[in-house]
Amino acid sequence: MKRILSLAIALAAQTVVGLNAQAATGEAREFTVTGYYSPLPNQDYYVTGSYEAEKRLNGHGIQGADGTPVFPGMIAAPSSYAFGTVVCLPDFGCGSVHDRGGAIVEAGGRNIARHDRLDLWMGYGDEGLARALDLGLWHTQGTLYEPSEAAGIDIAVNFKAVTPIARLLNIPAAKQFVEKLYKGSQGKEVEELQKALQTLGFYIGTINGKFEAELEQAVLNFQLTNLVIDSETEAGAGGFGPKTQAALSAALNKYETQKALIERWSDFNFEDNLSKGKRDESVLKLQEILVQRELLDHQPTGYFGNLTKEALIEFQLAEGLIETATSAGAGSVGPKTRELLNELLVAENEQQAADQQAQLAFMNQKNELLLLAGLNVGPISNLIAKK
User: Fold this and answer.
1) Closest Cα to residue 294, out of 8, 100, 57, 5?
2) Which DSSP symbol is given to 173?
3) Distances in Å between the alpha carbon of 279 and those of 126, 300, 302?
4) Partners of 315 in the beta sheet?
5) CB-based contacts of 259: which residues, under 8 Å, 6+ apart?
6) Are 169 and 73 in contact (CB under 8 A)?
């Protein structure tokens, strides 16, 4: 069983419909649609801050409530929907009901549901998270087929998606490497390669623009770690060709993305009043805090809706900021709530900074010893992942 992931970023996809849906009769209904996914231990990024918190939000993501293993097209629906019911939705396709959830309700439940609530399984890990974020909160008309009439309908869904969190936080584009480099090469491109490998913890030598033995070993270690080659005797080992360039670009972009996310939040302060209808990064951070305290059971989206307001009221009551749910300022961020939130951020940032410094010091020492010994090392960027 899973808990709900509700999102507020618009869907952008082409229509996909089960091939035989037109052959069966069905009932047209209005639905409120959201998405969830199956978190994995080694994702690049967890919106809630950790793998364990992500599992609390989305569930373990192994099987539905009826025991069916998760698959593209699995739907969580209210208990009034029999398992095996098929629902076809525009811009998504046809899926089958095999799951439930505490927030998967009929029309009118939990304020957010104008219509019967459906939650669509969007995949595993980083890709599943990106699709779920891209899906958003969606009110649409679809067609429902009872299990008795759904046998001839193909389960086929559209899984195209982008990553709106990167868009929201203005993450830089990936650096592109184009020039082939080998031992003996010199110049600015070699210097850029040295800097990139140094950033990722593979190169500890001088930045001098010269492709010498130390840089060759660093490239080799990177290739082996990132599975560009299988052994140090393979063709291209130690050289900086197209496959290694692509792998380094991806690894560097991952590092820079994680770094940008951390830096964005490390300098963050709540400065403005927040209330229902607001959409910005301040709301995203507020939601992250509420999720971590298990007061909000949907993925941070940057939009201040009904569920965020309800969770904020619970937070204010627990912290003694308001006496009742109807007190002045309940459900909005004013001066007192903003002051407390900023105090929490200071404490959180101090702890994160201390943890990161300890981890980085340990990894730098370890990498230096391993590199001097000519052994393979892992990328330092793993330490900065928000896990």
Assistant:
1) 57
2) P
3) 24, 11, 5
4) none
5) 384
6) no
Helical residues (DSSP H) of 136-241, grouped into ranges: 164-168, 188-199, 213-225
What is the value of pTM for the model shown?
0.48
Does residue 368 come out as left (phi exceeding 0), alpha (psi in the -120 to 50 range) or beta? alpha
Quote the distance between the C-alpha of residue 125 and its chain's center.
Answer: 8
- With 0-12 / 13-18 / 19 or more C-beta atoms within 10 angstroms meaning exposed / middle / buried, residue 108 is exposed
β-sheet bridge partners, residue 303: 279
Which residue carries 């459900």 as its tokens?
A: 331
| Spatial distance between the Cα atoms of 339 and 306, rounded to a whole number of angstroms | 23
Q: What are phi and psi of 260, to 5 degrees?
A: -65, -40
DSSP code per residue over 105-146: --TTTTTT-SSEEEEEEEEEHHHHHHHHHHH--EEEEEEEE-
Q: Which residue has the tokens 């709301």?
A: 283
Per 3-state DSSP, what percentage of the chain is helix, strand, and coil (rounded to 5)?
40, 15, 45
Residue burial 114-153, b: 16+ Cβ < 10 Å; e: rest: ebbbbbbbbbebbbbbbbbbbbbbbebebbbbeeebbeeb
Q: What pLDDT, in 10s, does the model give residues 2-14?
A: 433 333 322 223 2
For residue range 338-357, what is the model confidence (pLDDT) as tens digits? 999 999 888 876 766 665 56
Residue 52: Cβ within 10 Å count: 12
Sign of CA dihedral 63, 50, 343, 339: negative
In angstroms, rounded to a whole number, what is the distance separating the alpha carbons of residues 175 and 372? 28
Q: 42 exposed, middle or buried (CB, 10 Å; 0-12, 13-18, 19+)? A: exposed
Residues 6+ apart with CB under 8 A from 246: none
| Cα 334 to Cα 342: distance, rounded to the nearest angstrom | 12
pLDDT in tens, 83-103: 999 999 988 899 999 998 655
Nearest-angstrom CA–CA distance, 2 and 101: 6
Tokens for 240, please give them.
């900086």
Report all structural domains of the chain as residue ranges with CATH numbers, in order of start. Answer: 21-165 (2.40.40), 169-273+334-387 (1.10.101.10)
